[in-house]
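During the reporting period the student researcher (J.K.) took over the structure-prediction task from the postdoctoral fellow and processed the backlog of single-chain submissions. One of the processed entries is reproduced below for the supervisory committee.
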Amino acid sequence: MHCRMLCTLLVVIASCLVSTVVASVFHQEGPECFRKAPEECAPLDVTSSRCKNFGTDIYCCHIDSEYQLINGLKAAVKPSQKITALHIRNMTLVRLEVNIPEWRNLVSLSITDGNISQIIGTLESSHLSCLNLSNNYIEETDPLLISKLSTLVRLDISNNNISLTPSLSPSLVKFEIDLSNNPYINCHNVLDMLDQISRGPSWDQLHFDNRPQTVCRLCTAHTKCGPYTRVNMLYVDNVEYMNKVSAALTLELTCCMWTMSSI
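J.K. obtained the following structure tokens:
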């Protein structure tokens, strides 16, 4: 009986997708990360630094190696200068290590429009409020990537290929996240995030930006409902509804990855 009700719930939710996207609205009120346009990049030649100084902000472009990034930052940052924001555009490294001591005083960090597929390490900062990792090819992040960022207000990981989001700090009070245009996001992971929020002692609210472009994969393969595989693409509003309607639903979800057939 429980399984039949659960499957019925999934069908009803999936049938509501059209009405949900119409009702969804774009929401954004958190701080914007420091970000510069492509035309403001430093000249692209072998001898010049790939980074430019904008007061307390640094802008780096076309970074091919960690060595190039380190040298570019050394050339752009003056001795004893305090840097609060960093934007790295078009980093072609496949793997990026982010546990960098010099980044611990940043308020804003943007690493965008590159070829990064994996982010390794944990960001440690008592000041970082905005993190933008959009428009890369990120498939995997360290599960604890942002778990120590108690002041984080906004996270943008839109336009990537992630399936699992990193764990959040339990100290956050208000938080905005943009997961849009990640076609492999697992609904189970989103439910875990909502569950973490509901259990946190000081959580106030969570906002999903770009809701009309934010969907996740719900897979009911090899459950008690039957031996078939079915994949539902759900808008984030539906996932929030699922979280409220049935706490037991999370036990029935399976990870939906690359090889699943669509309904």
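The committee noted the following: Confidence is low (pLDDT under 50) at residues 1-28, 222-229, 245-263.
J.K. will present the remaining backlog at the next meeting.
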